[in-house]
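Hey, I was hoping to borrow your eyes for a little while. I've been puzzling over a protein and I'd love to understand its fold better. The fold is given in discrete form, as structure tokens running alongside the sequence. I'd be grateful if you could look everything over and explain what you see. No rush at all, and the record is pasted right below.
>
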Amino acid sequence: MKEDTLHVETSDSAVVSMLASADSIRFPSMRKEAFKPDPKKAVLYALIPGMGQIYNRKYWKLPLVYGGFMGCTYAITWNNKNYQDYRSGYIDLMNDYSEYLNHPDYMEGKDENYWKQRGWYSFIPGNSTPEEYLKNSNNQSNLKRGKDYYRRYRDLSIIITVGLYAIWMIDAYVDAQLFDFDISPDLSFHFEPAMTQKTAFSSRTYGFNCSLKF
């Protein structure tokens, strides 16, 4: 039994035409769009310190952000601790001194353990006793000055912290707004000496010529 075989011959021109049509097929572009931060989102992220800079991909600013906040936090904590110590000591000393003036025998019968519970005990110099320290009215002024000093610098540290917080929020917004800002290479500043020739109406003058090109 014979099998029939069908041969289909194609010309070279037909093959070339098919390959050309295949090459002309357009496929969807997979190119990734360039990153462009949204200023509104940058501000929202900046509500958490450092997140605005991370969103804008300004990672080099993070040590400045967190270093500043850590320094301010330490200053607030340290000044507040000293303020509380001086405040407690001043209040206790004023109360004890008032009791001493009203009751001269107020200090009798009180041992060292009792005075250790008073806020001003830790401020007593090594060469003095609780009785001597309490009777010296100058110590009241010293504790009051210390209290006011540390309270002032604690409040100043808080103000600086709030200021830094606002600055970094503004920085995140400005960075996002100017992220793709193009600085032209033609931007230049020229500064050179200049001379005006003598004319029939004016004498020769010398000066400087400044020009800004952008």
User: Anything to note?
Assistant: The CA atoms of residues 15 and 47 lie 64 Å apart. The chain is about 55% helix and 10% strand.
